Amino acid sequence: MDFSALGWRDAIWIAVALAAVYLLIELARLYRINRPRKKPAAAEKAATEALPAAEPDDWGQSPVQFGEHLLRSGIEAELQQMRGEVGALRDELAKMKAARRVSPQYNEAMLLAQRGMNAQAIADQCGISVGEAELVMALSRNKQEYENHGKNDNQKAG
């Protein structure tokens, strides 16, 4: 064969053709890699038989029971955390309700009374008289007793 008749134009076409063939081969390899592989039915059956269904291990639990126990304990821990958060939110809501019902002048005094401070400390901190502080404490105490009494009645009825 005489290659002397080939020019630059022919060389470029040959290079393009070789690049296209190479590109097609690589695309075929990528397609084969990304394609999901199917296991033969015999291999699937052997894989399921290889795992013991419910044989107890050294600790007396099967892996399935251990997984269920682990899941249940995680759910119980999350439930306890949520119960704590709900309790804290209930307390905060009760404080907000109490503060909303009281005159804005006595909001801080009511909050301090609910925290258990004595009348003198409330009077000193809020700048009110001791008599006013005692009245706020009595209102706070009566409101809490009323709310607790209502809860107790609801629990007895249920």
Structure explained in plain terms:
The protein has 158 residues and is an all-alpha fold. The protein has a domain at 66-157. Helix content is 76%, strand content 0%. The protein has 6 helices and no strands. The longest helix has 39 residues, at 63-101. The chain is elongated and about 120 Å long. The mean pLDDT is 78.
What layout of secondary structure does this protein have?
Layout: H1 8-34, H2 41-50, H3 63-101, H4 107-114, H5 119-126, H6 130-157
Decide which structural class fits the backbone: mainly alpha
Q: How far apart are the termini?
A: 104 Å
Estimate the global geometry from the Cα principal axes: elongated
Radius of gyration, Cα only, in angstroms? Answer: 40 Å
Low-confidence stretches: none
The main pleated sheet reads as: none
Helical proportion, percent range: over 70%
In short:
The chain is mainly α and 158 residues long. It has 6 helices and no strands.
List keywords for this structure.
158 residues; mainly alpha; 6 helices; 0% strand
